[in-house]
Design a protein that fits this description.
alpha+beta, Beta-Lactamase, 3 domains, 6-stranded mixed sheet
């Protein structure tokens, strides 16, 4: 196991991040830290260990109180995840993610083990999620006891499996907590038997091929827990030899929350949050693609600009909550009116736009426009006073009314005002529609 411990230490040296340990007490003395702390903070390991409270002064003054409060609460919470700022030796402000866990033995608290991961890039550009190259790096003492403690207490998922048949030799507590198995249920059983990994590309044959190139790093995988919940992990692996047999040490950082955050950012960038419809940005991109496709097919496109009639009175009389519900109802009704190839988007307020592709002639758009007009006619009665809602539609055709996105949208907008001026609740184009 001594050879395994050395292999583990070497393996952690190639994972980005800083591992540290704190003593319990009023000042939370720094009792150990990874060698690579100098690349993060500019201070070497020896200096920080010889000045055990100095690390607290590196915490940004605006964050220091919340960090101390979190450390005091760890006796109750057992784990602590924080994001705060550190000032490095060069005077730069770094955002770090600190993942910490209380170490206990026979019910007695011994200290705190944790990781600092540099998340400055992610924090300064939330729309651009930081590359997970900043994975955690650890340095452990070359002893079996120290290795096993770090293995079991690590905040990332860790497992040792037979490279030959995939049998689990050991897993850590984070692995068990995340997946939901008891240790007895998994040790001695094969990876395929447990049905955890759902990524076909992670079969043993593929892993053996990848390992011929050395350590596997930064491979995104999918796995599930006993409840069937899907997770995304950033996977690292290296071969190790234990008692003359080939094993695989696997480390996975559960990045499911980060992936959900990425998806949320992407969704918000391209969708209207009230109705769930595509927004202006998404609409313009789809229109640009549809126009290119229509050129190849030598087809026509109808671009519709919709504005609700009487909607201001609804907001003024019934309030914005009712108005928002009507906008959602209209969005749903418009979606049901359209074909699968059509696109409806909300630009904002009570304005919507629609793309009708694959038209052979202008008249092909009219049946859909009629359905929209009919569907959007509503009467709301409040205090015995009826409020009528309808829609005015402006229509512009590609390529006759424009060959650029901005031109088509502008001409559809102009045609919509013609419909308003002509009495509302109707559709008009710059030329004949039928």
């Amino acid at each position: 196991m001594q050879d395994l411990s050395m292999t583990i230490l070497e393996f952690f040296d190639c994972i980005p991040g800083v591992m540290f340990g704190l003593e319990l007490g009023e000042d939370y003395h720094l009792c150990f830290v990874s060698e690579n702390v100098s690349s993060l903070l500019g201070y070497d390991k020896e200096y920080l260990i010889s000045h055990p409270t100095f690390w607290l002064s590196l915490i940004n003054s605006s964050d220091r109180s919340q960090v101390i409060e979190g450390l005091r609460n760890i006796m109750h919470t057992k784990v602590l995840n924080q994001e705060y700022r550190l000032n490095n030796r060069a005077g730069q402000i770094l955002w770090v993610q600190a993942e910490m866990k209380l170490i206990t033995k026979k019910g007695q608290a011994l200290g705190i083990i944790g990781f600092w991961n540099d998340i400055s890039e992610r924090h300064h550009a939330t729309a651009k999620i930081a590359n997970e190259d900043n994975f955690l790096e650890q340095e452990l003492k070359a002893s079996e006891e120290r290795f096993m403690k770090a293995f079991q207490l690590s905040p990332v998922l860790m497992a040792i499996t037979s490279l030959d048949d995939g049998t689990y030799l050991e897993v850590n507590d984070t692995f068990l907590d995340t997946i939901g198995f008891n240790r007895e249920e998994i040790i001695g059983r094969r990876v395929e038997e447990m049905d955890i990994i759902i990524e076909p590309a992670m079969s043993r044959a593929v892993l053996k091929g990848l390992l011929k190139q050395g350590t596997i790093r930064n491979k995104e995988i999918s796995f599930k827990d006993v409840r069937g919940n899907l997770h995304t992990g950033l996977y690292f692996a290296t071969p190790v030899i234990i008692d003359g047999k080939d094993y695989l040490l696997s480390v996975a950082l559960d990045i499911s929350e980060r992936k959900r955050y990425e998806e949320q950012i992407r969704y918000q960038a391209y969708h209207d949050l009230l109705t769930g419809l595509p927004n202006r940005r998404s609409f313009e991109e789809r229109l640009r693609y549809t126009m290119a496709d229509a050129r190849r097919r030598q087809e026509s496109i109808a671009v519709l600009f919709l504005d609700l009639d009487g909607f201001k009175r609804v907001n003024d009389t019934l309030g914005h909550e009712v108005g928002d519900q009507i906008l959602c109802d209209i969005a749903s009704a418009l979606t049901q009116c359209l074909r699968e190839v059509d696109t409806v988007a909300r630009l904002g307020g009570d304005e919507f736009m629609i793309i009708l592709p694959h038209l052979k002639a202008r008249k092909d758009a009219w049946p859909i426009i009629e359905r929209i007009l009919t569907t959007c006619r509503k009467t709301i009665v409040t205090e015995d006073v009826p409020i009528s809602i309808s829609v005015s539609i402006g229509v512009a055709f590609f390529p006759e009314d424009g060959t650029r996105v901005a031109t088509l949208m502008k001409n559809a907008d102009i045609a919509m005002y013609h419909a308003k001026d002509a009495g509302r609740d109707r559709a008009m184009g710059l030329g004949p529609i039928q």
